[in-house]
Amino acid sequence: MSRLPGDVVIASAFMSYAGPFPSEFRLELVRNTWLPQVRGLNIPATEGFDFALFLANPSDVRDWNIQGLPADSFSTENGVMVTRGRRWPLMVDPQVQANKWIKNMEGANGLRVLSLNMADMARKMEAAIQFGEPVLLQDVMEEIDPVLEPVLAKAFIKQGNQTLIKLGDKEVDYNFDFKLYLTTKLANPHYTPEISTKVMIVNFAVKEQGLEAQLLNTVVKCERPDLDKQKNDLVVKVAQGKRTQAELEDQILFMLSTATGSLLDNVELISTLDQSKVTWEEVNESLKVAEETSVKIEAASQQYQPCALRASILYFVLNDLSGIDPMYQFSLDAYNDLFLLSIKNSPKNDNLQERIKHLNDYHTYAVYRYTARGLFERHKLLLSLQMCMRILQSSKQINIEEWQFFLKGGSVLDRSLQPQNPARAWLSEMAWDNITELANLPNFKGISDSFEASPGAWEAWYRENEPEVAELPGEWEPKCNELQRMVLVRSLRPDRVIFAATTYVANSLGRKFVEPPVLDLGETFNDSTPFSPLIFVLSPGVDPTDALRKLAHEIGFDDRLFTVALGQGQAPVATRLIEEGMKGGTWVFLANCHLMTSWLPTLDKIIEGMEGQRPHEDFRLWLSSSPSPKFPMAILQRGIKMTTEPPKGLRANLFRLYNTITEDGFAECRTQHKYQKLLFSLAYFHSVLLERRKFRTLGLNIPYDFNDTDFKVSDDLLKSYLDSYEETPWDALKYLIAEANYGGRVTDELDRRVLNSYLSKFYCEAALAKSNYPLSPLPTYYIPDNGSLQIFKDYIVTLPATDRPEAFGQHPNAEISYLREDSKIVLDCLLSLQPASAGGGGAVSREELVLGIAQDLLEQVPAPFNLEEVMKRKAEDPSALHVVLFQEVERYNILLVKARHSCRELIKGIKGLVVMSADLDLVFDALFNARVPAAWLKTYASLKPLGSWTRDLLMRVEQLARWVEDTYPKVYWLSGFTYPTGFLTAVLQTTARRSSIPIDTLSFEFSIVNLTEKEILQAPKDGVYVKGMFLEGAGWDAENGCLCEPQPMELVVPMPIVLFRPAENKKKSQKGVYVCPLYMYPIRTGSRERPSFMINVDLKSGLADPDHWIMRGTALLLSLAT
Predict the structure, then answer these.
(1) Which part of the chain is the Dynein heavy chain region D6 P-loop domain (predicted)?
(2) What would the pLDDT profile of 536-587 be if each residue is shown by its tens digit?
(3) Residues 251-265: pLDDT tens digits?
């Protein structure tokens, strides 16, 4: 009793302020903030104050648990706040636990369930207020209808004995039995102060600790029902005992207050006191026994804690996936069902430790199977790796510092203190940055010295085809565990990261976790119920309708499958079919839901209402949709998701195309001797275009969705033209197929050039005349000799399952290039899934790390130029090039001011001197992840990580500073301009003015200058020398000044200095010249505001013809991603 004042103060603070926070922060507030403050004011308070124990009645809590409120302490705290708070509760409820609890708790009291988008919401709210009924307003977003403002604020109007409240333009009689509950499914909503002061925001979002407690209750209930029963009986017994004590206290107090005369003469009072004493002692004794039993039950329950921990970890792995793709939504209810199935189906064992191991292993794989079915192929390894890392992290088997390095790599802002790269010939600057930063980790001390001492051994490992399984040089082989080996692979051979990660998961969890199960539609159907929709998540060029019809045929549902392609005016048809299907037990397939997102909230309500309508047991609702952020989360969480993807590889695509050709269709063309070969060439052409996308920009600048219709139309054209002309109309066929049909989808002129090059090779006289005409440099791929349709299918089966880059006319290096890009995507996705609280490991916190980076940047990024001073200096020479200089200085000044201001504000924010705004949060996250903040990339586009970008910025500013101080540079670093096209236009303008010729008649001629920058003593008479370009997709023969094959693992090569000389009425490119596109940076499409393409540069094509380099995707780049 003496500690009551302090407890009341803390409970009041908790009730007022703790609602929006997660459990760990609530605990921190009580222990580290409020308790010390209360003690500091000498107010007595309970040492281990517990809000739930202080304000919650155990029997009430038990009722709440029966009604669906989870039994963990966090949920109990929320229950107290919801039921005892003076403001209406607004519950942040992404897992819909609060929603369910409120519906069960208030269901018997006539609960009205409303949502803001209901047409008659205000009318129903008015009725509930008048009749004193509870209302659940669900699916609230970040704004609430202003009509409800007086209700939220409890703005009562007194008129005599009446209490009224304003609702819209009406004043409504207020019944004090009215209750209002609000819930939102948004996981992290931002409410305005106007809303958050009127309602009590209560955070019901499940966190790992809370879910662990819930799942522990689940597993104990299933595995030890005896313990669960004992626990429930105890709650009832304790509640009865405490009630008896309270009744005795009340009785004695009543008798004492009403007693007259001497208390010693009051026989009834004395006998009641004696009886109360005996009863009190008996109750106390039973409560002590109950407490001891409770401790034993808790200890027995805790033995199952490893199962709850594993299941909780796995749920949050699934929950995080929504950050990768909006369609990856998983409900907690469905997950609980899966966990119960795992408990039921996993192997039983009398030995508890063995039983727990079996259950964990079974459930882990069950989660993988269940989730992988709904993921795209590219994200399945991501799931395995995240599961593996989180499981190992929970058992302290993973070094977080090394894991963070694996995700982010090393970033060096200032190379002045960095040791010299000992092997520049093969070790890139980026790789050396990784190694020198790696040397700062405790387990990698001396790694950079090892490179200096044994560069040959490291080079041999680096050049291995599979370095992830090769022996590491010297002492590092026995020293490194699997994660450390993976870190080395990431540092030196990023193209092998996916293979290293696959090996890591296979060795840690098992081989089956890197071999995703093939989608079995029949098995998925067996897992489904009439209440949960089955959702196909679509990929370009794939239609699941045929597979669904085939399943319907197998089950005997041919005439009971109804399909609707959603679009304008189809909503009533879809609604009618669903209603009829629920009654008659038919299947309804709503295709292309992404084309009708405005109707999907209505569909959500229809699906939500299914449980109350008890649909026919045979009814199934099938949906298909491309990924869309507008697809309702509730449908995705309730449904079973399946991804549909096109087959991978030339063989699979060729086989699929030939399976669509019938014997009659194959024999339809009269000129069979031509048709059979040209049809195969067409199928190969189609397959190559589909598969070429994997090479990204080396394949096509834009990934087009070519589909079977393109192939079918081209096939019909081929038959028609071959039968109509005696001479093969090559030009007409090539134009109609490459330019009109397939080319109709192509929006980039340089991509159209690729299509033409392929078809020129595949459609020529030699393809008909030559036996086994080769379709690629590899002998495996050729046009088979004429025969039956089956002969062509038999040949396709002999092709390899995985394709080498040469099959597409690419160099083997192209494979390294796309594997690097794939690895980068996986690492970036994994990095985005890491919790924000994860520090850099060791003693360095996240804040300290970012503070150090911001301070380094502030020191290194120079102050802006004085533009007025620059313009005065160059006032005597008003040339076009000086106008470019002024514009560039102005743009760089904006960037320098922005970068320095962001760093200064961020340093203040980390120190707590200013409020961290949303913009500063973005800068903070970017610096922590060693990336350039998006706000800094508006001046010029770049893919470089933070360290390389900073050094690049300093070089750019230095070029301008030298130009400002001195005269025109002899050699221009074209990459150093924010708008290089503006600079090149100024060069043309200078020549046009000097020669008095129209600028639109000028274009550039290009010649290679085999001199270093130091050897160039003066600028050219006409044009400019340009340095700093890189060649991608080819090598450079310096001796002959032409393109050549690159060396193995040589992805880009630096170009020599090139003279850009303006010339009037330039002739068309000669034979043996490759017209090479020049791009600003590796994303060749650029953005809508800033295209990456600049100009075509003529380069000698060397021993190969220009088509060879077109198929290679050879291009010049001004800036790299490293």
Answers:
(1) 530-643
(2) 999 887 889 989 999 999 999 989 999 999 988 999 999 999 999 999 999 9
(3) 888 888 887 777 777
CA distances to 88, 815, 1036 from 1047, rounded to whole Å, are: 70, 14, 10
pLDDT digits (tens, 9 = 90+) for 40-85: 999 999 988 999 889 988 878 888 988 989 988 899 999 999 999 9
Contact residues for 834 (Cβ-Cβ < 8 A; gap 6+): 404, 407
Q: How confident is the model at residue 837 (pLDDT cuts 50, 70, 90)?
A: low
**Phi first, then psi: what are they for 892, rounded to 5°?**
-65, -35
Spatial separation of the C-alpha atoms in residues 953 and 936, rounded to whole Å: 11
| Residues making up the chain, counted from first to last | 1122
d(CA 629, CA 885): 44
Report the C-alpha gap between 1058 and 1056 in whole angstroms: 6
DSSP assignment letter at 32: I
Partners of residue 588 on adjacent β-strands: 562, 621
Q: What's the CA gap between 360 and 990, in Å, rounded?
A: 74
Query: What interhelical angle do 813-833 and 377-394 show, nearest 10?
Result: 50
The predicted pLDDT at position 870 comes to 95
Place of tokens 């080769």: 774
Name the strand (E) or helix (H) holding 1096: strand 1093-1100
CA distance 1076 to 1093: 11
pLDDT band, very low/low/confident/very high, at 291 (cuts 50, 70, 90): confident
Contact 5, 49 (CB under 8 A): no
Cα–Cα distance between 409 and 1095 in angstroms, integer? 34
DSSP assignment of 91-143, as one string? EE-TT-HHHHHHHHHHGGGT-EEEETT-TTHHHHHHHHHHHT-EEEEES--SS
Q: Report which residue type is found at 582.
A: M
Distance CA 808, CA 691 (A): 9
If we measure between CA atoms, which residue out of 429, 477, 487 comes closest to residue 450?
Answer: 477
Helix then strand count (H, E) for the chain reads 46, 24
| 615 phi/psi in degrees, rounded to 5 | -65, 160
For residues 288 and 954, the model is more confident at 954
Q: What gap in Å lies between CA 987 and CA 1004, rounded to an integer?
A: 10
Cβ(1017)–Cβ(970) below 8 Å: yes
Contact 929, 906 (CB under 8 A): no
Contact yes or no for 737/717 (Cβ under 8 A):
yes
Q: How far apart are CA 52 and CA 23, in angstroms?
A: 12
Structure tokens at 210: 């809370």
Collapsing DSSP to helix, strand or coil, 646 comes out as coil
Cβ atoms 1021, 995 nearer than 8 A: no
Yes or no: say if 152 and 61 are a contact pair by the CB < 8 Å rule.
no
Contacts of 294 (CB under 8 A, 6+ apart): 231, 234
Q: For 313-335, what is the mean pLDDT?
A: 93
**pLDDT of 443:** 94
The H-assigned helical ranges of 303-351 are: 305-320, 332-345
pTM of the model: 0.88
Q: Please state, rounded to an integer, the average pLDDT across all residues of the chain.
A: 92
Cα 458–chain centre separation: 35
> 3-class DSSP state for residue 1031?
strand
Give 298's Cβ-side CA count (13 Å radius).
Answer: 8
Nearest alpha carbon to residue 218 among 131, 285, 312: 312
Q: How confident is the model at residue 841 (pLDDT cuts 50, 70, 90)?
A: very low
**What are residue 571's phi and psi, to 5 degrees?**
-60, -50
Mean pLDDT to the nearest integer, 497-525 = 94
Q: Do 587 and 552 form a contact (C-beta atoms < 8 A)?
A: yes
Q: CA 304, 393, 398: angle at the middle one, nearest 5?
A: 140
Q: Which residue type sits at 43?
A: I
In sequence order, what E strands does 926-1071 have? 971-973, 1002-1009, 1024-1027, 1030-1032, 1035-1037, 1042-1044, 1052-1054, 1057-1064
